[in-house]
Specification:
The protein is an alpha+beta fold. The chain folds into 4 domains: 166 residues, GAF domain (Beta-Lactamase); 107 residues, 2-Layer Sandwich (Beta-Lactamase), CATH 3.30.450.20; 73 residues, Helix Hairpins (Orthogonal Bundle), CATH 1.10.287; 147 residues, Heat Shock Protein 90 (2-Layer Sandwich). It contains 15 helices and 17 strands. The protein has a 6-stranded antiparallel sheet with strand order 6-5-10-9-8-7. The chain has a 5-stranded mixed sheet with strand order 12-14-15-17-16, with helices on one face. A hairpin with a 5-residue loop joins strand 8 and strand 9. Helix 11 packs across helix 15 and helix 12 runs parallel beside helix 13. It is elongated. The protein starts with a helix and ends in an 8-residue tail after the last strand. Bound molecules: adenosine-5'-diphosphate.
């Protein structure tokens, strides 16, 4: 039979062990351990140190004012920084503790320190200090040792819990910030995770998606590749250990009624017994890829169409001229050769535009910066274009003190040429075409206006897009690739400027360019 007080001690020990092992938050666990240990040994103060980054750090204390805590640092610095309980020893612990207690005028005169060992590792150190004289008895030490064993388990668990929680938080943050949509379904088919990207793709807030079934959220408007998840599962997907991910591609119905092209990869997660635990879906928004594909096919059709016409003309005229059974008068030969030269020029221009567009895409559009007199440039171009039309009146309108700017003269010539040639092309009935310039506080403003067909309101936001051509008879009749304004805007932007268009259909269009006057050189 144990003596009565030993029974009480044992019960008390059990009770506090339960209390501390129930708790998982490390700071609370440490606090509870200290309070219990101090009470158990009739102490006044206590400290717990944990090993972090290869050295001992105080992580909890009771009964010691904060300003005296650093007095314990030298003691901690002398304690071995390994976690092997076999070799572990706290040198001269009681003498040093009573010295610290004395120096700090805490009235703490004796102390005891013990390692806390869990799973053959020293996970922490516990120190208890007392205010009255005399050493800790062997019973005190025995009691503290048995308590330290329980405490060590609690600390070990809380540390593991802390690690797991930190890892989970990290994983949560990664999944949340992941660029693709992520959907996790549990074994009951319910959604347990729905990240931010998927909320955007599906137009459904995560809070509304959690707990729903896969099919409530992933609703196909049209599927291009792969069976959907249900069909695949009915066919036996996934088989533990043998099947790879399932890939499905198509148009997803968004929860706001829209449609978005996506590719979804489903991967299955099994437990050790081979039971399906989760299905993880990576939902990739394919809008950009689809746009690129569309652009590629537009590119092929535009280019082949635009190349065919001049090539056919060149071939036709060349064949005609080379016929052996006919003799051509010099005027016909001259006119035919002029057509061939013009068409060859058009081909060169087209190839240049395509090259520019591709340079732009790869970020290789370089500017040769120098002083540019835009008024002079506009005057030259107006004179040049006057020779190409007798229906239009071309006017350059610049104040005499119009300032020079820093820019790439050839590229700015290309900008004005594009705008002037469009003004002529899209005003087939003639009218005035005016290039005007004015100086502003920030730089200069150029404006090219015509009195032609104008641009419909629904086309206005798109005319600067690559390959965009407005619908309509006139555009169909007029040759073009839809690259001119795209390149024009890219060049203007490369100069730090902007271009805008206004139009009243039937009355003409006006393009306004603003360009800064630059103090320093452009960064290109
Ligand atoms: P392209 O002239 O080769 O078709 P652009 O990129 O220069 O290509 O122009 C894009 C579209 O904008 C044209 O197809 C045309 O529909 C419209 N557009 C451009 N300039 C004018 C203008 N001055 N007046 C009316 N429409 C215009």
């Amino acid at each position: 039979m144990l003596p009565d007080f030993r029974v009480r001690q044992r019960d008390y020990l059990l009770e506090i062990s339960r209390a501390i092992t129930e708790e998982l938050e490390l700071p609370t666990v440490l606090k509870r351990i200290l309070q219990a240990a101090v009470e158990l040994t009739a102490g006044q103060a206590g400290l717990i140190a944990l090993r972090e980054g290869g050295r001992w750090r105080l992580r909890a204390y009771v009964g010691i004012p904060e300003q005296f805590i650093s007095a314990f640092d030298p003691l901690l610095a002398d304690i071995p920084d390994h976690d092997d309980p076999e070799r572990f020893e706290i040198p001269e612990v009681s003498r040093r503790l009573s010295r610290i207690g004395g120096i700090a005028s805490l009235g703490l005169l004796s102390g005891v320190g013990l390692p806390m060992v869990a799973r053959q590792e020293v996970v922490g150190l516990i120190f208890i200090l007392r205010g009255y004289g005399g050493q800790f008895s062997s019973n005190d030490r025995a009691l503290l040792s048995s308590f330290a064993v329980q405490a060590a388990i609690a600390v070990h668990n809380a540390m593991l819990y802390q690690q797991v929680s930190a890892e989970k938080r990290r994983l949560d943050a990664v999944l949340e910030a992941y660029a693709d949509g992520v959907l996790i379904i549990d074994s009951a088919g319910k959604i347990t995770r729905f990240n931010r990207a998927l909320s955007t793709i599906s137009a459904l807030p995560a809070a509304n998606a959690l707990g729903l079934n896969h099919d409530d959220v992933i609703r196909w408007a049209h599927r291009e590749k792969g069976p959907d998840l249900n069909a695949a599962m009915a066919d036996g997907w996934p088989l533990p250990g043998t099947t790879g991910p399932l890939y499905v591609e198509g148009d997803l119905l968004r929860h706001n009624g829209g449609i978005v092209p996506v590719g979804i990869s489903y991967a299955a997660v099994f437990d050790r017994e081979g039971r399906l635990v989760n299905i993880i879906a990576d939902v990739h928004d394919m809008t950009k890829i689809r746009e690129a594909e569309e652009l590629k096919s537009t590119f092929v059709s535009v280019v082949s169409h635009e190349l065919k016409t001049p090539v056919a003309l060149i071939k036709g005229y060349a064949e005609t001229l080379s016929r052996e059974d006919a003799s051509w008068d010099p005027a016909t030969v001259r006119d035919s050769l002029a057509v061939i030269v013009d068409e060859a020029d058009r081909l060169t221009e087209l190839i240049e535009s395509l090259l520019d567009a591709s340079r732009l895409q790869s970020g290789d559009l370089k500017l040769n910066i120098a002083d540019v007199a835009l008024d002079v440039l506009a005057g030259q171009l107006v004179e040049k274009f006057k020779t190409q039309t007798d229906k239009h009146t071309l006017v350059a309108d610049f104040a005499p003190d119009f300032p020079e700017i820093r820019g790439d003269e050839e590229r700015l010539r290309q900008v004005l040429s594009n705008l002037l040639s469009n003004a002529i092309k899209y005003a087939p009935n003639g009218g005035e075409i005016r290039v005007s310039g004015r100086s502003t506080a920030a730089g200069v403003e150029l404006r090219v206006s015509d009195q032609g067909a104008g641009i419909a309101a629904h086309d206005l936001p798109h005319v600067f897009e690559r390959f965009y051509r407005a619908e309509g008879d006139l555009t169909r009749r007029v040759k073009g690739t839809g690259l001119g304004l795209f390149l024009t805007r890219a060049i203007v932007r490369a100069h730090g400027g902007e271009i805008q268009v206004e139009s009243e259909p039937g009355k003409g269009a006006a393009f306004t360019i603003t360009l800064p006057r630059y103090n320093g050189e452009l960064a290109t």
